[in-house]
Amino acid sequence: MLIWIALIIVPMLFGLYAQTKIRSAYAKNVQIPSRGRITGREAAEAVMTSAGITNVEIVEVPGELTDHYDPIHRRLALSQHNYRGTSLAALGVAAHEAGHAIQHKVGYSMMTIRQTMAPATQIAASVANFVLIAGIFLISSAIGGKLLLFGAIALGIICVFQFVTLPVEFDASRRAKAQLVNLGIVDRDEMPGVHETLDAAALTYVAAFVASLGSLLHILMMLSGRREN
């Protein structure tokens, strides 16, 4: 019971905390306008231009915190508040996504590994839950053991992908914070709001990795116990 709490419940609570943290930090800092009144779109463009990137399209997408960089189509997508807004949160998020574009341009190794793993991870994520649930229900049978093993492999792929994602996200935030100050987009005394937003966002990636790792260890323990019986 204690092991189940440590591997499943604690990571779940950590994940909820991380989600609450990012939404709280974003809600707070999206209300604080930057002195320069530069929009998120303009900030992303300035950061990329300073790195010699002129072939990435910046587009507006619906939703909140739906921002992302698409390396295949060379497209940087910003949600409405971050595309049009001038808040500290908007500038931080926009510069962060521009950081991914810079990683792509310079051939950042961890981003390359992440891109290579993406197709396999998508397949693993689409089948993992179904296979694991079926394996748990049929755990006493031979097919149940095979399903759990298959699910463990899928979870392993997801864990490795999320582990590789951590340095990619941390590095993008590091680049974003440095460029916002170096380019004069944000004054140094405004940076706490940017730090708070991006650090909270980074915590969600840590929480996702911890949750997947906990689930993987739990399944491996189930498989080990099954063999002993």
Largest sheet entry: 3 strands, mixed
> Topology as H/E string?
HHEEEHHHHH
Total strand segments:
3
Mean pLDDT: 93
Task: Report the structural category.
Answer: mainly alpha
Strand residues, percent: 5-15%
Strand order of the largest sheet: 1-3-2
Tally of individual domains? 1
Uncertain segments are none
Shape: elongated
- What Rg, in angstroms, do the CA atoms define? 20 Å
Blueprint (SSEs and pairs):
Elements: H1 2-29, H2 40-50, E1 57-61, E2 68-70, E3 75-79, H3 80-84, H4 88-106, H5 109-137, H6 142-182, H7 191-228
Parallel strand pairs: 1-3
Antiparallel strand pairs: 2-3
Give a nutshell description of this structure.
It contains 7 helices and 3 strands; from the N terminus they run ααβββααααα. By secondary structure, it is mainly alpha-helical.
Q: Please, could you describe this protein's structure?
A:
With 229 residues, the protein is mainly alpha-helical. It has one domain (2-228). Helix content is 75%, strand content 6%. It contains seven helices and three strands, in the order ααβββααααα. A three-stranded mixed sheet has the order 1-3-2. The protein is elongated, with a radius of gyration of 20 Å. The two termini are 18 Å apart. The model has no long low-confidence stretch (mean pLDDT 93).
Keywords:
229 residues, mainly alpha, 3-stranded mixed beta sheet, 7 helices, elongated
